[in-house]
Amino acid sequence: MKFSKILVGLLIAATSTIYAQNKEVSLEEIYDGTFRQERLQSLQSLNNGKEYVVLNRDRNANSTSIDVYSYKSGEKLRSLLNSDNLNEISGFQGFALSEEEDKILLSTNVEQIYRRSSRGIYYIYDVEDKTLTKLSDNKVQEPTFSPDASKVAYVFENNIYIYDIASGKETQVTTDGEINKIINGVTDWVYEEEFAFVRAFDWNKTGTHLAYLKFDESKVPEFSMDMYGQDLYPSQHVFKYPKAGETNSEVSLYTYELAANESEKVELGDYEDFYIPRIKWTQDPEILSVQVLNRHQNDLDLIFVDAEDNEAEVVMNETDEAYIDITNNLTFLEDNSFIWTSEKDGWNHIYLYDEDGELENQVTKGNWEVTNYYGYDKDSKKIFYQSTENGSVNRDVYSIKINGRSKTRLTEKEGMNSADFSADYTYFINSYTSTETPYEFTLHNAKNGKLVRKIKDNSALLEKEAAYNFAPKELSTIEVNGNELNMWMIKPNDFDENKEYPLLMFQYSGPGSQSVSNSYFGTNDYWYQLLANEGYIIATVDGRGTGFKGADFKKVTQNELGKYEVEDQIAAAKKFGELDYIDENRIGIWGWSYGGFMSSNAILKGNDTFSMAIAVAPVISWRFYDTIYTERYMTTPQENPSGYDENSPINHVEKLKGDYLLIHGGGDDNVHVQNTMRMVEALVQANKQFDWAIYPDRNHGIYGGNTRLHLYTLMTNFIKEKL
């Protein structure tokens, strides 16, 4: 749990468009910051488990500090560092502590690359002698201390370097790195996006070896995007992007021995067209763990590599008829036995294996899901986790002995509970919300869940909202296609069951996702309050393929993305239309990304049910999306052409009857604007009228400046005009 972080304070103030008694709050007020959320800083536990550090910024003084606070009292105790005392820099954007907390990496001039990756100028601060050392004159990626903090490894222009802090000597580990060809030590685009990691190197426990991945993406097809900017001529952003069925990077594993200054390739075995989604050194400094996954992502080997001779041995294998989710839950105990999570009994649970990969114990079991694994406390021999034991729309935090006994529920309130533990598992900060309660933050004793102190609540938000007469978010279920599906509904605050109202449905519906939970309003929910006050009913239904109700429910959509999920949305809409207070001729649907794929399919396949749809940044054909995500659920288009084509909106454009709005960001590196352009052309050739908007240079989130204000104004006006 070292370096654990928590972002507390998700909704201290609201973002909404509503009617406040006799006063209307405008969309402009939302997006100019009038209702900006107040947030608490990210907290990081110190090794002693009794204190945590926070990055504080004084904008007036233009300074940054790392301040130490007491868990128990919440009071500031001291500062580890204040930029006012540094001559070399005026401030910093982020920090990382060394393992012994005696040195700190400070990041400055950070620039974003993709969703998770960035580069910046870094400095090393020595806590004891208060000196500051510049790591490199170049903007580098993923700088990481060695275990004893004597060195820092980092990546620059696709090569790995090691900087010796005492001598100032820099050693170049790899030399073949080349943009859009060879990558060492960080991941390519598709690994970053779909396996959710960037740093592809790892120090062993004693700092004598560095393991790293090499990506040869020379055969991966390139994708290009025109970026219009402010110059006379547009620029072109070109990067490697493997679409479904196309060539992936060839990935290989190396170990680098510092004393010998030599890298050696690890021969993992007779694998073809495979992924290495995780590498991690075990408690034994000579043993590296490697996860190797086949391209279909349904056959996973856990391999141990002996660094002395680079011999590789498979210690555990897991298979699934559909796919295996990759997580960060692998934890090695002192004897190299390990904790693992798996859906192999049909529900996601925690397992204990010995150092040879033999199953010792299934720690948790039951018809519910472990939704977060928080870690293991070696002193109490307890595992801490979050689960759906009290219903799929709720979350609670538990502890359990590693032998599966003495399970203790550590949270009390029904709703969504999540935890962040101190380094020694003495305390945890609980984040709690429900449909009636904005986020509350409290400190608890990890032994029994007893409340230590209240940190912050949203009483001020509730007082502010009282004037606006919000309609509640009503949680319930609806029986559709033989399943009890979770749903919520927001009605006008002057709802009259004797009247008929138009209905707007929202969904996402991607594999394993969840849009219906026992949680308070998010930003879109406040927008829904505006629509409700305009006389609309808003509803969301989590259909088949969504998560937290077991593997069978989630994986029923395998090889058929867009079939069962769309059937459930259409059936739910028809059932809503049978209600006396819903106008069956005025039912709309909207979604973003996977949700845009869904809303597009819904108005086409359900053209007698939906009269309006909005699709934001939609996938129009899974042939256009990346290998890892798409093939996990669909295999390749060469193997499954009907699955790709029969559920692609582009092949059903002739069915369009209602009003359809397409929206996309022109700089979307994730779901390319190609999707929308191909859909536009198909609709034009089918002579179907529709509306569309492209936001130049905007990425998948479509934000920046007034962009969100413009986007939501566009959608609001479309809904009011068409539905």
Give a description of the structure.
The chain is mainly β. The chain is built from eleven helices and 46 strands. An eight-stranded mixed β-sheet has the order 39-40-42-41-43-44-45-46, with helices on both faces. A five-stranded antiparallel β-sheet has the order 1-4-5-6-7, with no helix packed on it. Mean pLDDT is 93; it is low at 1-23 and 33-39.
Structural class: mainly beta
Most strands sheet? 8 strands, mixed
Number of strands: 46
Strand content: 35-45%
Cα separation of the termini: 50 Å
Rg calc: 26 Å
pLDDT < 50 runs, ≥5 residues:
1-23, 33-39
* Percent helix: 10-25%
Biggest sheet strand order reads 39-40-42-41-43-44-45-46
Q: How confident is the prediction overall: mean pLDDT?
A: 93
Globular, elongated, flat, extended or rod-shaped: what is the shape? Answer: globular
Helix segment count?
11
Key features of this structure:
723 residues; mainly beta; disordered N terminus; protease
What does this entry show, briefly?
This protein has 723 residues and is mostly beta strands. Helices cover 14% and strands 38% of the residues.
Please describe the topology of this protein.
Layout: E1 5-7, E2 19-20, E3 23-24, H1 27-31, E4 42-45, E5 51-58, E6 63-70, E7 76-82, E8 94-97, E9 103-112, E10 118-126, E11 132-134, E12 141-145, E13 151-156, E14 159-164, E15 170-172, E16 182-184, H2 189-194, E17 201-203, E18 209-216, E19 222-227, E20 235-240, E21 250-257, E22 262-266, E23 274-281, E24 287-294, E25 299-306, E26 311-319, E27 331-332, E28 338-342, E29 349-353, E30 359-362, E31 370-377, E32 382-387, E33 396-401, E34 408-409, E35 416-421, E36 427-434, E37 437-445, E38 451-456, H3 459-466, E39 474-480, E40 483-490, E41 501-506, H4 523-533, E42 537-542, H5 551-555, H6 564-577, E43 582-592, H7 594-605, E44 612-616, H8 627-634, H9 641-645, E45 659-665, H10 674-685, E46 691-695, H11 707-722
Parallel strand pairs: 41-42, 41-43, 43-44, 44-45, 45-46
Antiparallel strand pairs: 1-4, 2-3, 4-5, 5-6, 6-7, 8-9, 9-10, 10-11, 12-13, 13-14, 14-15, 16-18, 17-18, 18-21, 19-20, 21-22, 23-24, 24-25, 25-26, 27-28, 28-29, 29-30, 31-32, 32-33, 33-34, 35-36, 36-37, 37-38, 39-40, 40-42
Helix pairs in contact: 6-7
Organism: Salegentibacter maritimus
Protein name: S9 family peptidase
InterPro entries: AB_hydrolase_fold (IPR029058), Pept_S9_AS (IPR002471), Peptidase_S9_cat (IPR001375), Peptidase_S9B_N (IPR002469), Serine_Prot_S9B/DPPIV (IPR050278)
